[in-house]
Specification:
single chain, 221 residues, alpha/beta, 45% helix
């Protein structure tokens, strides 16, 4: 059975992606910091016929994250798809002139150390399979820096660069790396930013395997 690991799983996008991939026969490993949230998601997905399990992990603790991904692979089979999509903390979004070097520790742990640790954990399994997909989900500051959101602007840019390097390096091994940029908030009922619409887009990125950066909506939306 193929499996997908969703890092930063929640009741919006994470749940929608789990259902979309679950319909295609994927087992779903959900990673998040909140046990109650995970238990609720697993129960809800099970009611929809999706095989899902929850694994506690804080993306700012690399060993905790890699341990959770390792357990997920042991219990659910080799991870074929990794989605890295945790929601950044509000305190990462300080104005640039109020952002000191210590204020960047959290954003860098969140958007650089976390993704690197996650990729390094799942990559050997994907290489053994001879296929895989790594999906990064970011806000608009990944490509359009904002003076009032310095932490995410800096850290998302680094995450974007890392993803692009992986995209170029791993394509020849059958492993597709792509980024979905979502300007503004994920909004239920929105024509382009509803969680179900975004989940369909992420499924298409996995299925079609072309290009690195994809936009859910116009950057000024």
């Amino acid at each position: 059975m193929s499996s997908i690991a969703i890092v930063g799983a929640g009741p919006g996008l994470g749940a929608a992606v789990a259902r979309r991939f679950g319909r295609e026969g994927f087992a779903v490993a959900l990673l998040a910091r909140d046990r109650d949230r995970l238990d609720t998601l697993v129960r809800d997905l099970g009611g929809s016929g999706v095989l899902a399990r929850g694994f506690l992990a804080d993306v700012r603790r690399p060993q905790e994250l890699t341990g959770a991904l390792g357990r997920a692979a042991d219990e659910m089979g080799t991870i074929e798809v990794l989605q890295y999509s945790p929601v950044p903390h509000r305190d990462f979004m300080r104005p640039v002139l109020e952002t000191g070097h210590r204020d960047l520790v959290g954003p860098i742990e969140f958007s650089v150390y976390g993704p690197v640790a996650a990729v390094q954990q799942v990559l050997p399994g994907m290489r053994r399979l001879g296929r895989g997909t790594i999906l990064f989900v970011n806000g608009a500051t990944a490509v359009l820096p904002h003076t009032e959101r310095a932490g995410t602007s800096i850290a998302f840019a680094a995450e974007s660069a890392y993803g692009h390097l992986l995209h170029e390096r791993l394509a020849g091994e059958g492993i597709h790396v792509a980024q979905l940029v979502i300007p503004g908030a994920i909004t239920p009922g929105h024509a382009r930013k509803d969680p179900v619409v975004l989940a369909e887009m992420l499924w298409g990125m996995h299925r079609d395997r072309h290009g690195y950066r994809h936009f859910a909506d116009d950057l000024d939306s």
